[in-house]
Design a protein that fits this description.
The structure is a homodimer. The first copy, chain A, contains nine helices and no strands. Chain A is mostly helical and about 200 residues long. The longest helix of chain A has 25 residues. At the A-B interface, helix 7, helix 8 and helix 9 of A face helix 7, helix 8 and helix 9 of B. Chain A binds a DNA duplex (19 and 19 nucleotides) through loops.
Amino acid sequence: MRAAGVTTEDRLVAAAAALLDAGGEKAVTLRAVGQGAGVSHNAPYKHFRNRDALLAAIATADFTRFGDAFAEIRGSSRTAKEKLRAILEFTIEYAHDHPMRYQLLFANRAIAAQGGVLQEAAMRSFEAFAAVVEECQAAGVLPGTPHRTLAGLLFASLHGLLAFEANGLTHPRKGFIGVSESIDLLVDLISRSDDRR
Amino acid sequence: MRAAGVTTEDRLVAAAAALLDAGGEKAVTLRAVGQGAGVSHNAPYKHFRNRDALLAAIATADFTRFGDAFAEIRGSSRTAKEKLRAILEFTIEYAHDHPMRYQLLFANRAIAAQGGVLQEAAMRSFEAFAAVVEECQAAGVLPGTPHRTLAGLLFASLHGLLAFEANGLTHPRKGFIGVSESIDLLVDLISRSDDRR
DNA sequence: ACCTGAACACCGTTCAAGT
DNA sequence: ACCTGAACACCGTTCAAGT
């Protein structure tokens, strides 16, 4: 027994996350995870159904962090538009600081398919974001499209920019001005469409 | 020797593409590719540096198809706005018909990093799309942002929608209305921002 | 020039045991 | 309840040969 309350399961997830950050998904081998957590290479099977379930545990933990951060921003005393920017910027920073983890959360078929707790955590983040979008609409900053649809569209656009950037599809010759500037431009173009009502 | 002009290299790429469509990237093992092409499991090494180079060959071929299709749409007698829709719709159809291949082209780090001919093919597609965006601006259908920047933003948004859909992040509870409808909505919201000048 | 078979160093996963 | 070591069926890649 090491630090109080730190279970073997916690150490397995932590070791897997460290390997993921350092070397991408393929670096997360059960043998390396076991070694990182100080157990044998198949001890993980006593805590997770398989490798995908272990990866999903990382994703679930991080989606929860997203949900917390988004909820805090939503409840802050900023203006609606500032909240929108804060959430988008938080996501961009996370993607830049932990590119492999971002990819695991938002660009991984097998992980999203794990369902359950993970879906709940992801939905909670989305709801906080959608609520901020609704605030923006009430403030006349965003047009009156159904707020969930608009929120999904904005977040998908942000993801597309981050994905293209990460995959090297944003050649300077393509007029790419950076993710943050691009999403600002998009919000700006959309904002003007309603003449602020 | 089989059909005239069909080289071993062609058969290797075709076999790899078939495996990719059928079972995703991990199904493309060099052993299965070799068997599919009627050669040994390491004959591919005489034609491609490694597995990633083989996958990149599929991507290059498909990017060329994209470039051809986009160029043909650009040169057609449609209106600017119809051309824009046709290109977006072509991409959506391709992504729906060949999800694994779409992922290989637009959501794969290792492949994009192969550079060279692939980058050229991708750039050619982009240029055709950007030219159509420019036509839309001249027609007052899209706002006067630098056309490459706007084209990149639109295509990235489309990719984000397709990626979220493929990864199951578009729960109905999130107000998702479909990729085609979502990108139409986005174009519509952006179009109105300039009051058609 | 193009291909093959054997071999190496890895994988995820399963299983029979151990405490 | 939790963990281990051996084993199985795979991988990508390399190498020494063969035609």
